[in-house]
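Shipment paperwork, digital attachment
Item: protein structure file
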Amino acid sequence: MKPPVFKIAPGEIGFDFDGVIADIAEAFLRIACEKYRYCSFTAEDITSFQVEECLNIPLPVVEEIFNDILMDSLAAGLKPMPGMRDVVNELAGMAQVTIITARPQWQPVADWLDTFFPARTCRKINLIAMGDHDGKISYIREQGLKYFVDDRARTCEILHDSEITPFVFSQPWNRNRHTFQTVENWQEIRAMVDADPA
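Attachment content:
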């Protein structure tokens, strides 16, 4: 489904980090190849949020790769999603930008943001690391958000059931797994946000 045509106030929409802000699939696949010699996979092969269910990579290796990314995202070479920086910089000029991640560690994400954004943008980013994929709803409500962009279909189901409007950031692992509005890229996200809300 395509995003709705109505406009969203910039301070009312929040974002997941991995798979929305940052390109975790690229980092995972690159490390899998460079460090462990699993080089035959592409992002299109990641058809499940549980990577070990769809890639023929042993679970301990999967866990070690993700641990490397989560503990030191900069050393892992984690890259921004295409177009994300321009949009977040613009949104930060309008309102606070809220990022809520299921990662347990706040600092690696904060360090990553400090590297990829100017200080003026970082001052407007509210980063919450809450350590639980299924527990985002209480944080979303605390921040007064009405909309949230996530790449995990199950999270979007929970948000929808709690009367928060979810947008699924289209990724191979969420295709055909939900009936919610999708966004294909950051340009579509920007098109939904009203630069001059009434």
